[in-house]
Structure formats: C-alpha cells, structure tokens
Write a structure and sequence with these properties.
This protein is of the alpha+beta class. The chain has one domain: GHMP Kinase, N-terminal domain (Ribosomal Protein S5, domain 2), CATH 3.30.230. The protein has six helices and nine strands. α3 crosses α4 and α4 packs parallel to α6. It is globular.
C-alpha cells in the first residue's frame, strides 16, 4: 500500500514551518508577524489607559482585553472586500475575534491591569488555512511584548499572564488524521478541528465539526492527542522566542507567561 502523502509532502503529525518576526508594527506596544507556512498574520498589541464603559458603570475592578481580526483584501487569491465596505462585520470575523479574545483572557489576570485595556489586532496578510489558530498564537506573543514594554516603563507593576496560549488545527483528510491543515487540506477535510491550549497543556477551547461527515470517539481521541503533540512544539517555539527577546533586552528576570 502506498504511503499516505499530504499535498505539501509533510508527515501527518508535522507542523508547517513556524516563525515569529517581532516589531513588525513600530507604533504598537508589541507586535509579531507569525507565519505558519504560507499563512501569515500581523498581530499587534496596544494598551489604553481606560476600560470599557460597562466596566465603569458596573464598578468591575481591574482591566480588560479585547481583540479584533480582519483579512486584508489581498490575503486571498480572489480579492476579499473589507467589512467596512459592506457596512458590517461578517459572522466569521465576529466569531474569530471573539475566539481570540476569549483565548487570551483565559490566561491573564485582568486585576493586574488596573484601569487599562489591552487591545490585540490580528490582520491576515496571507491566508493558506489556519488563520484563526495563527492569530491566537501570535496574539499572545504580541500581548507579551506589549506587557514587557509597559513593565520596563513602570506603567504596569507585574506580568499579568498566568500561562501562555496558542492554537493549532487538526482534521481528517483522505481518511487520515493530520496536524495543522493548509488550505488545500482544509477545504476538502472530512473533519476539521481548531484546538486552543495553554502552555501547561490545559484546553481553552475545542471547535470541531464533521464536514458532511461523521467521526468516531476513537477518531476524536486521536485528533486531540495529535493536537497536544503539535501544541507542545508551538508552545516551545513561543517560549524560545520570548526568552531570546527578553535576553536581548536585558530582561531575563521576567516571567515567561507564568510557566
């Protein structure tokens, strides 16, 4: 029987090449260009000295974290009109930016951001599958760089992150469980999952569906285990990036995301 082959030649359990380029947006407090293969997302974080009106009205202590997501018109083969041209956000955009916000809020102590809002903007530069998972992975790093800057400037007393967070996709393609789906796999996958996890290995969110197909309990277990394998590698690369960054800036004493 011929060996299973993915369109780009990867093993079923192999991530696409993963890289992080810091300071891609100079005016942001922290920014990263994250690349999962040909999927590239600019993630930028800025901290505002105010909180949403509902927090003030309800007397909620601490700060807030919010995220926005967009796909640039030239990120896909066919031009994608901006949401503003349609007069409203499409459902997919709203879903993804809420997911990014939930994912980061799961690993941050907002009481350590008193009267501040941490904004994270994720703009897809090139889409080849997995834009939401790349956005979450890069958003955490951009937010950590912004926190680093605020601590250095003595505008925040301590690192509010309790852990790191990242995401990866898994699915069933051509009857085989695979990790980190590129577009050609994603569009024809029988089953598609997006898994969000912390650096300690805890689940934040599991989004999964059969694409006109079903999956068994055994397949679900296999997909979750495959995601955990991939997430260990992603979390390790995040830590490597942050350690190198902190050492470069002479801040080796700072905690790397609570781990």
């Amino acid at each position: 029987m011929p060996e299973f082959a993915r369109p780009d030649g990867r093993r079923p359990d192999q991530l696409r090449p993963l890289t992080f380029q810091p300071d891609i947006a100079p005016n942001a407090h922290g920014s990263v260009l994250v690349s999962f293969g040909n999927t590239r997302v600019i993630c930028a974080a800025m901290i505002e000295p105010k909180v949403p009106a509902w927090m003030r009205q309800q007397g909620v202590p601490g700060g807030w974290l919010s995220a926005e997501y967009s796909m640039l018109p030239y990120s896909t083969l066919d031009r994608k009109p901006r949401d503003i041209a349609k007069g409203k956000l499409d459902g997919r955009t709203v879903e993804i930016q809420r997911l990014i916000g939930r994912s980061l809020r799961a690993v941050i102590d907002l009481k350590k951001l008193p009267d501040k809002t941490l904004w994270v903007d994720c703009d897809v530069l090139q889409a080849d599958g997995g834009t939401r998972t790349a956005s979450i992975t890069g958003a955490y790093l951009a937010a950590r760089l912004a926190i680093e800057k605020m601590i250095t400037e003595k505008k925040i007393a301590e690192n509010p992150f309790t852990d790191s967070v990242a995401a990866v996709s898994v699915g069933i393609f051509d009857n085989k469980e695979i990790l980190d789906l590129a577009y050609l796999e994603d569009k024809d996958a029988e089953v598609d999952f997006n898994i969000v996890m912390t650096g300690r290995g805890n689940f934040v969110e599991v989004q999964g569906t059969g694409e006109e197909a079903t999956f068994t309990q055994e397949q679900l277990s296999s997909l979750l285990e495959l995601a955990k394998v991939g997430m260990k590698e992603v979390a390790a690369k995040q830590t490597e990036f942050l350690v190198k960054r902190l050492l470069t800036n002479g801040l080796a004493g700072l905690s790397i995301g609570g781990r």
